[in-house]
Amino acid sequence: CSLQAGLAVLLKAERLFHSSYHSQAVHIRPICKVSHWFAQLPCDGFTVAACLFLVQDASCLAMSWELRQTLTVVFDFFSSGQGKKDWSLFKMFSRTLTDTCPLASQSKVYVDISPKNKEKELLEVSPPPTSLHEAIVQGDKKTYAVYDLLSPSLFNTSRSLNVQLKWKRPQDSSEMPIPTLHAQRYVGGYGLQTGEICTLIYNTHPYRAFPVILLETVPWYLRLYVHTLTIITKGKENKPS
After folding, report:
1. Residue 226 class from Cβ within 10 Å (0-12 exposed, 13-18 middle, 19+ buried)?
2. pTM for this model (two decimals)
3. Residue 131 forms beta bridges with which residues?
4. Same domain for 73 and 192?
5. How many domains does the structure of the chain reveal?
6. Please, what sign has the CA dihedral across residues 171, 175, 181, 185?
7. What is the pLDDT of residues 71-110, one digit of tens each?
8. Which of 121, 142, 167 is the last residue of a domain?
9. 42-79 residue pLDDT tens
């Protein structure tokens, strides 16, 4: 369907590249399969997973490939001067969803509406979602509003879908909880002798440990010496392998 229908309609370059952060990736991995396919279907959406539907083969006598394309975009309206945390698809992408791609096996939009505290829910989404989905993410229970573009009732009342999220009352930014996993990075010192990059990774969970993959984007003006890498955890140095 390219940019004619489905979630890919929202992928407007001038909006994506002017966001606070964007990242595109293609993941390819070999997987075991039997000698025949179930299907090879076109894929649609921001995060496209398992485009090749295969049957696993325990003996791994045959090998095939799985392709997964992802696009991650971060919009920050509050710090950009608009002063509101409300958002909508049209506000972010200057477009709305008008139809689903008929070749897609599934096409869904998930909105995180998990309560941030014990008070009454502060978030309101419109139009009403087709269903709700609950999952455990990093030890916390999450609730998602699900919009299934393949549902016939979704486009019955309107020719377009513009998912909107509004706060029922103004919320102070200080009330927002700190993520379980978060990080910060800064450049210290100066020159090649004392200059350094420091990355701090925090885990605020009271008892659970998480595996972390750290990908560093090094500024062009810094020259790194790998033998100077140090890793300190709880005040003790861990020698990297």
Report:
1. exposed
2. 0.64
3. 146
4. no
5. 2
6. positive
7. 888 888 776 656 677 888 888 888 888 888 888 888 888 9
8. 167
9. 444 443 333 444 455 567 777 888 899 888 888 887 76
